[in-house]
Amino acid sequence: MPGYAAALTAAFCWALGGLIAVTPVIRLGPFGFNRIRNPLSFFMLCSLAFLTSGWAQIDHQYFWYIFFSAIIGIFFGDSALFVTMNRMGPRRTSILFATNAPMTAVISFLVLDEKLSLGQIAGCVVVLLGVLLAIIYGTANQQHRWEQVRGSVLVGVVSGLTAAFCQASGAIIIKPVMESGADPVTVSAMRVGIASVFLIAYGWIRQGRQASNNYSKPTIGLVAWIACSGFVAIVLGMTLLLYGLAKGEAGVITTLSATTPVMILPLLWIKTGERPALGSWIGAILTVVGSGILFNY
Question: Which residue, 7, 56, 202, 221, has most beta carbons within 10 Å?
């Protein structure tokens, strides 16, 4: 039960953090945004880890699990995620990213030999159906600039599915670490720190090309928004997901964390003034029902 609640809270954190991130991503570009957000999040997580004495709980034999989870799940996964957001907007990005749930369930069945009960499978199916309805019928009329598609739709879809696959793979890789009793905050700090090093190095490599992009330079205001996004989505959201993975089956936890597209609907309504369509609310109800089924198995 605590793991399920953590997964749902993580989904809300990602919905809120994603909306906070939209403007900085558009202005700075996905890689420029990530090169600022990850180091800021790393320092915040490190501070919390020292307060909780979590560093002493990390078994060094799990370093490579953390390393590859960081590279796949954050360096590649987050980069692909924000490429998608820059092209497709937050609502479409959230549904593409939500496909990490069935991907995780399949991978955990094949790799970890996790067995799901019929009730849990039914709950996962209902949650995913609700998520699909929520995104297909996302808004009554899509006039806001966040609903515009920039560039190739195919590239946006492929990058979104890539982000989902990287998230699923990263979650599977890190699960043994979390089951060992490692502190979620400290593991988050290590993953984000490793990814930050690679993002900074990649930024230096492509620095010559950056000048040709029509992106803005960072300002104090943008950095403040990025810090807020990092705190909500990474410090809170990612840490809660890791806690959930330590407490429950990977397929169930990622399914619950995939409810972000539903949770983002009322936030988008508040922000854009565009009321979501009836189908999206039906999707939200189905997601709640599916979550209830999971809570009872």
Answer: 7
